[in-house]
Amino acid sequence: NPKPGEIIYADTTGVLTRHWNHRDAHRTRVTEDSTHVAFILETLHATRDGDLLKVAADELQGLLAPHAEQTAVHYLSPAQPQAA
């Protein structure tokens, strides 16, 4: 269970990862049978490292494109805490 104020990533079923992104949930692991996958990229210093985060997201999208019907990138922040 997350502590009050703790950063988590969650879906409608429950918590996917907590304590930032150092431990992912077993139920959301990527396998050859996966059809919906989320890759989480993050930085503590978006104003300083935001360009690096965008480069990494663009590169990941390029690597996934040949294997995916569709890809999407969502940028979260305190002002935008949920994907649209």
Structure notes:
The protein is of the alpha+beta class. Strands 1-2-3 form a 3-stranded antiparallel beta sheet, with no helix packed on it. The longest helix has 19 residues, at 46-64. It is globular and about 40 Å long. 23% of the residues lie in helices and 11% in strands. The model has no long low-confidence stretch (mean pLDDT 83). It is built from 1 helix and 3 strands, in the order E-E-E-H. The chain folds into 2 domains: 1-40, no CATH class; 44-84, no CATH class.
The separation of the N and C termini measures 25 Å
Specify the helix fraction band: 10-25%
Mean pLDDT: 83
State the domain count: 2
Q: What about the largest sheet?
A: 3 strands, antiparallel
Report the count of strand segments: 3
The Cα radius of gyration reads 14 Å
Morphology call: globular
Poorly predicted residue ranges: none
* Number of helical segments with 4 or more residues: 1
Side-by-side strand order of the widest sheet: 1-2-3
Taken in chain order, the helices and strands follow as: EEEH
Please indicate the percent range of residues in DSSP E strands (runs of 2 or more): 5-15%
Which class do the helix and strand fractions yield? alpha+beta
Brief summary of the model shown:
It contains 1 helix and 3 strands, in the order βββα. The chain has one helix at residues 46-64, and strands spanning 8-10, 15-18, 23-24.
Fold blueprint:
Blueprint: E1 8-10, E2 15-18, E3 23-24, H1 46-64
Antiparallel strand pairs: 1-2, 2-3
